[in-house]
Amino acid sequence: MARVKPKRHNIRVDMTAMTDVSFLLLTFFILTAQFAKPDVENITTPSSISEKLLPDGSLMTILSTTDGRFYFTPVENGTERMRLLDNMAKKYGTTFSDKEKAAFTKVTAVGVPMNQLKGFLNLSEEDQENFKAPGVPMDENSKELIDWVEQSLAVNPDYKMAIKGDTDTKYNRVKGLFEGLRDIDFLKFWLITNQEVGPTN
Hints:
201 residues, elongated, alpha/beta, 6 strands, 7 helices
């Protein structure tokens, strides 16, 4: 007696749920993505084989240009930025209006001396982007850059810091920065570099 072959049915997979999940994930990643802000100056960083990543939050950054200018980028938190500005205003005997404080929460980086900061904050965002900043003073006569770091730590001692220097930055400029950080006993920070392929075994 011949075997009865079962009738074969076409398999149909309902992909509706998968499509919904895909769009939900896509929407989530788009809404939560944080795009890196462009640097105020073009910096060509040295290369290294280090694979350590920078911390995501509570990070302040110092940029050092080829001509020896320094920029200071406070942490992103707007409330803590206002407290930092109040600390610096108290130290340098000045005051800032609420409008200037609000503008400070949006700046990419501080690149002017304290005596020019009020004027800079009163510029439009477009004028701020086109402004040729002289840099934050950091020399034998004035160490405002170190004051920015110190007053940031007064707001939150858990802040971390990264330094991004150009490959052509003069050594004595960076050395002065390191010595200033040592003077306030701030000895741990990251150096931002380009990823280099490590040696093969």
